[in-house]
Amino acid sequence: MNVEVTPLPGIGVRKDFAIRAGRRIGVVTHRDGKIELIVSKTDDPDAALASLPLTMEEASALANLLGAPQLVAQLTEEHRDMPGIHTRQLPINAGCPFDGRTLGDTALRTRTGVSVVAVMRAGQVHASPTPDFTLTAGDLLVTVGTSEGLENAVKILKRG
Amino acid sequence: MNHTALELLELGAIFFGLGLLGRLANRIGLSPIPLYLLGGLAFGQGGLVPLGDIGDFTALASEVGVVLLLLLLGLEYSATELITGLRRSWSAGLLDIVLNAAPGVAVALILGWGPVGAVVMAGVTYISSSGIVAKVLADLGRIGNRETPVVLSILVFEDLVMALYLPILTAILAGVSFFGGLSAVGISLAVITVVLVVALRYGRFVSAVVDSPDREVFLLKVLGAALLVAGFASAMQVSAAVGAFLLGIAISGSTAENATKLLEPLRDLFAAVFFVVFGLNTDPRSIPPVLGFAIGLAVVTTLTKVGTGWWAARRQGIGKLGRARAGAALVARGEFSIVIAGLAVSYAAVPAELAALSTAYVLIMAVLGPIVARYVEPVARRLVRTPAAPAT
């Protein structure tokens, strides 16, 4: 992927690339940290069809949405030969009892047999998190386990 | 009524009136600059209600306005951005100078204002208003467009040209000899080089001198430093505004960002005073005789700016619509044209009609610029789609 980085004097930096469908997609990072998502028009590739201002949280949520399925697909592929083992993404929602607590506090492995293989945060993968990894709202836990174990894990994350 | 009370009343009336004008400008999506100028024209000499008692204050305040305008312009760009901008756009920048200064020079010569008037008018018609252009780009959602870096690098180039042009102009206006002028240029070139090198290598030290975690201390230090540098620059005949601009460049990183946030309201206040004072000193009765020239200049320099942007964008491989947008974005003239004309008027080295022509010209261009930028797209689309249009 050829990401073009263009400085915008007085404004910030634009990073974008052409997608296979022909449009350009990218972000403008303003000096003050504001982020804008840009998508070009089809008939006029120089113009931005939309430039959507995103807050930090929105940008990281979007990054998680885009990044997590890829990781899950990869893990599913790896576990295909083991029947009964599934991969799922479990979100830490705002108001979740574990928001601000460590992964160890959930005791997921002891209670359900489910392993947390990675945490997606702000589009970044934190692989093999240790029990002292602190969870925050917006994180996505990439988990591996039996369907039953995963069901239980969902309930635990919801109710504590 | 005592003297102070009258002064406070007048000043209050001016600021309140400007506030109302600014609100009106926001409503109709206009830059407030032309309205401030109109406000100034309406009062002052030959206007509806002459104001007189606060001349001392407004004169100094308008000087501070110019210093702040240029200081914030310098803060906007880092030294690295200026150098990359210079490298990327020098050819477009040169074309910009030739195409857009020439109409000003021509009109000044036709009107018999001599070489000094020609140099002044060259600057007035040359420089785009980076304030209006930046706002137009943001308002129309064009920050992410591919032609936008082209527009921005031309603006950067223009601002660097200002740093050379203003000292030359100051020297010419002061009536120094040819060698005096050369030495002013030499001094300013040397100072600009030193500032760029210092800003690139030791920018954080300059920033550290003015930086402070306390807002109040920071504000006083930045403002104090800017006025000190502007004063020194003025004493060395390099023009106060350029001193402030260079200080702005030397301050970098988060210090520059914080300083911008802190100084923006102050700049708006003092710059508004500057525009009003310029309008106040222009007799509205002197405008009608030069109005024809102003309109002619507006038409010609709109076309030349569009041409500049078109050419620069084409060099970067931008499509036809993008080229048209780049050209139209650059059309607006504003604060810096008035800064140049104001400088000339303060030296009384040019005829009074020059102020009238500049005022009328900026009034037209500050209003026309955003309109051209907005409507160029549908027009260009129609032209590009028409089969009869020649394939260039």
What does this structure look like?
The complex is a heterodimer of chains A (160) and B (392). Chain A has 160 residues and is α+β, with helices and mostly antiparallel strands. Chain A contains four helices and nine strands, in the order βββββαβααβββα. Chain A has helices at 56-78, 103-106, 108-112, 147-159, and strands at residues 4-8, 12-18, 24-30, 35-40, 48-54, 86-91, 115-121, 124-127, 140-145. Chain B is an all-alpha fold. The termini of chain B are far apart. The model of chain B is unreliable at 387-392 (pLDDT under 50). At the A-B interface, strand 1, strand 3, strand 4 and strand 5 of A face helix 4, helix 7 and helix 13 of B.
| C-alpha geometry of chain A | elongated
Helix/strand/pairing class of chain B, anyone? mainly alpha
Residue-averaged pLDDT of chain B, rounded?
A: 85
Give the uncertain stretches of chain A in residue-range form.
Answer: none
- What do the pLDDT scores of chain A average to? 84
The chain-level structural class of chain A is alpha+beta
Q: Summed up, what is this model?
A:
Chain A has 160 residues and is α+β, with helices and mostly antiparallel strands. Helices cover 28% and strands 34% of the residues of chain A.
